[in-house]
Specification:
The chain has ten helices and nine strands. By secondary structure, the protein is α+β, with helices and mostly antiparallel strands. Among the domains are: about 5-135, Topoisomerase I, domain 4; about 140-170, no CATH class; about 275-330, no CATH class; about 330-360, no CATH class. A hairpin with a 6-residue loop joins strand 7 (about 335-340) and strand 8. It is extended, with a radius of gyration of 27 Å.
């Protein structure tokens, strides 16, 4: 697996550690700004944590190769340092990948100087980077075909099975990437197949019929939503966490375990926006706007024509929407207490920035 970008770090921290994107970025900021390990002042433990690049500085790669050779042996070194291609749409690659500033600063050696969250995230970043500089794991794949039927009779039934055996662990000796639920549904679990010989006669011990159905896609988690944003080209490394925080703070979605479930307010807001601002709500619009803003930042495009092209039709749509949209009241919920000023029931109400408790009057 390549070293972390912002999005993959947020996804993996969500899967493995149960961190929200905001929590991940807050802890990563602490590790980047520095921790006082020995009383001589803060030491930055990781590189800049807002990046869409998988590139690694040559000096850091050489240090990692030196560490791997000392710790695991030459067999765990690839002939050449790996090079990973960034897959993110519109990646800017202004910074290198997220990695430890020194691989020789092992997580367990500084565990006592870190908080629990800092240690867990640093360990994740450290392991991922070391694994990214190691060779892939090697498996022996076995396919078996078994002809079956009554004794002393033709065997009209054919059963097939495939399995794999780990021959060389490679990077798995350090790190194995977690998987999302939707990925797990698509992949068959690995099977262990005992040694068999061609022509060997087998006894039927048990036949277990299994029926599989195509499952609907599961609801988004923060990890899978960040992955989707990246695939659609929506947002930047610096905006993934604020996007997720905003839709929850405003009550557009709620959390059920790790799942993000749209609320009545979320459906309502989405329907109104899609109806009155269809171009703005289109995924391609956001991705194209991101590209245009990148070109403006790079000096390859003037900002005034871009803003004019967007704003003039948008202003007309906004004026029309304000005229046509009817005020929609979202049902309030009583909280079981009375207003200290007038005695009327207090209710959960909706405001510009999400839920708040207010007087029903």
């Amino acid at each position: 697996a390549p070293p972390f970008t912002t999005s993959t770090m947020q996804q993996e921290a969500s899967r493995r550690l149960g961190f929200t994107a905001a929590r991940t970025m807050r802890i990563a900021q602490q590790l980047y700004e520095g921790i006082d390990l020995d009383g001589s002042g803060p030491v930055g433990l990781i590189t800049y944590m807002r990046t869409d690049s998988t590139n690694v500085a040559e000096q850091a790669q050489q240090e990692a190769r030196q560490y791997i050779a000392q710790r695991y042996g030459e067999s765990f070194l690839p002939p050449q340092p790996p090079v990973y291609k960034t897959k993110t749409k519109g990646a800017q690659e202004a910074h290198e990948a997220i990695r430890p500033t020194s691989v020789f600063r092992e997580p367990d050696s500084i565990k006592d100087q870190l908080t629990r969250d800092q240690y867990r995230l640093y360990q994740l970043i450290w392991q991922r980077f070391i694994a990214s500089q190691m060779p892939p794991a090697l498996y022996d794949t076995v396919a078996v075909e078994i002809e079956a039927g009554p004794p002393e009779m033709p065997r009209p039934y054919l059963f097939r099975a495939t399995g794999s055996t780990l021959r060389f662990p490679g990077f798995l000796i350090v790190y194995e990437e977690a998987r999302d639920e939707d990925t797990q549904q698509e992949e068959e679990p690995a099977q262990q197949i005992p040694p068999l010989e061609v022509g060997e006669v087998l006894d039927l011990v048990q036949l277990i019929p299994e029926q599989h159905f195509t499952q609907p896609p599961p609801r988004y988690t923060e990890a899978t939503l960040v992955r989707a944003l990246e695939e659609y080209g929506i947002g930047r490394p610096s905006t993934y966490a604020p996007i997720l925080a905003t839709i929850q703070q405003r009550g557009y979605v709620r959390r059920e375990g790790r799942r993000l479930v749209p609320t009545e307010l979320g459906f309502l807001v989405n329907d109104l926006l899609v109806e009155h601002f269809p171009e703005v709500m289109d995924y391609e619009f956001t991705a194209q706007m991101e590209e245009q803003l990148d070109e403006i930042a790079a000096g390859r495009r003037e900002w005034v024509p871009v803003v004019r092209e967007f704003y003039i039709p948008f202003a007309r749509q906004l004026e029309e929407a304000e005229r046509r949209i009817e005020k929609v009241e979202v049902e309030s919920t009583e909280v079981g207490r009375n207003c200290p000023e007038c005695g009327a029931p207090l209710t959960v109400r909706w405001g510009r920035y999400g839920k708040f408790i207010g007087c029903s009057r």
